[in-house]
Design a protein that fits this description.
By secondary structure, the chain is α/β, with parallel strands linked by helices. It is about 35% helix and about 20% strand. The strands form 4 sheets. It has a 7-stranded mixed beta sheet with strand order 1-2-5-6-7-8-9. A 5-stranded mixed beta sheet has the order 10-11-12-13-14, with no helix packed on it. The chain binds zinc ion (ZN) (2 copies).
Length: about 350
């Protein structure tokens, strides 16, 4: 796959539903004609190879196909997964972190992850049952009718066999610098899409790896669920501001294709959320609404909430909550418990 500059290479690993060749073809097509695809076809890991040192940023799902793609991609640049010394994970979502355990076994690499994402590896990947029970209660709290709730809480079990989890060797907070040969990568903590999401910035070569935080056409899901605290959308908006003044030449996301104008993209994403916030505010009744009520009224690109698969409904409720909580933070909404349900009210 593509050389960004000497020593930094963009690789590609397919999602489970796609072959390597189809995913590569889509990578080319999408860059020429950006459009919405049904699901994500691939993740873009980055190989850093300098001064005899080898590091990787993100990996992919733990499928044989994705591993094979990684192996081919690395071999094209004279390296191999067994030689990885450092593995930086932008966040613990399965498409970025899924293959970590397998790579650790092969290479004994140092796995680097933010402490906030390290926190929920155990609950999410090693002992997921209690989390599912918590999720049912959480859905009830937010007004999801009980017929939907059990299916929704089981939504993510299907992916566990495609993740090979491993605890990190090094937990970061943001602000650290890692040397890989001639490169100095700074860790920038960008919570929002995930509480421990990080970006990597190389100031001398002006390279920024944005993970899922900033993508060229997709706005990443920013959601409230049982493992988030506070206001993820507030965090996300502040994390965008952290990057806006960086001196950059190459902006490298983990999906889609390279970002040409970072500032412009940040403004677009901010505007998208402003529109969404105003729309959600209009969907809150004077007398109060649950997150489920609001999610049922707003427009979704993929159709009506009632027709969604359970896991999509869960994502929609989580995303709605993130917007409601942010408006609460801004003083535009208040919230109150009535019986078992949480209601939001305009101020
Ligand atoms: Zn993600
Ligand atoms: Zn992703």
């Amino acid at each position: 796959m593509a050389e960004i500059i000497e020593g930094i290479y963009q690789l590609l690993t397919p999602f489970p539903e796609f072959s390597y060749d189809d995913a590569k073809a889509l990578r080319r097509q999408l860059e020429e004609h950006p459009r919405v695809t049904k699901g994500l076809p691939y993740v873009l890991p980055y190989l850093i190879k300098s001064g005899g040192e080898i590091a990787l940023v993100d990996c992919g799902w733990n499928t044989d196909n994705a591993y094979k793609a990684l192996e081919i991609g690395m071999q094209e640049h004279g390296s191999h997964p067994t030689e990885i010394e450092k593995l930086f994970i932008t966040h613990v979502h399965p498409d970025h972190y899924g293959m970590s355990g397998r790579l650790k076994q092969l290479s004994s690499c140092e796995v680097v992850l933010h402490e906030k994402d390290a926190e929920f590896i155990a609950a999410r990947y090693f002992a997921p049952r209690p989390l599912a029970d918590e999720m049912s209660l959480f859905m009830e709290l937010n007004g999801v009718p009980t017929v939907s709730a059990p299916g929704m809480s089981m939504g993510s079990f299907g992916m566990l066999d495609k993740v090979s989890p491993v605890p990190p060797d090094t937990e970061v907070k943001g602000g650290e610098t890692f040397k890989v040969g001639d490169f100095d990568f700074e860790i920038i903590w960008t919570p929002g899409h995930s509480p421990g999401h990080i970006c990597l910035y190389e100031p001398n070569r002006k390279i920024l790896m944005t993970g899922d935080h900033i993508l060229p056409t997709i706005t990443p899901n920013v959601s409230i669920h049982t493992q988030t605290h506070g206001s993820p959308l507030g965090d996300y908006m502040r994390s965008l501001e952290k990057l806006v003044d960086l001196d950059v030449k190459h902006v490298l996301p983990a999906h889609e294709f390279d970002i040409r104008d970072l500032k412009k993209r940040i403004v677009e994403i901010e505007e998208h959320h402003e529109v969404r916030l105003a729309e959600m505010l209009r969907c809150v009744d004077r007398g109060g609404s649950t997150a489920w009520d609001v999610a049922g009224r707003v427009k979704w690109a993929t159709g009506m909430l009632a027709d969604f698969e359970p896991w999509m409904q869960r994502a929609a409720v989580g995303e709605t909550l993130a917007h409601l909580e942010y408006m609460f933070e801004l003083g535009q909404l208040s919230k109150v418990m009535r019986g078992k349900h949480l209601y939001w009210l305009p101020v």
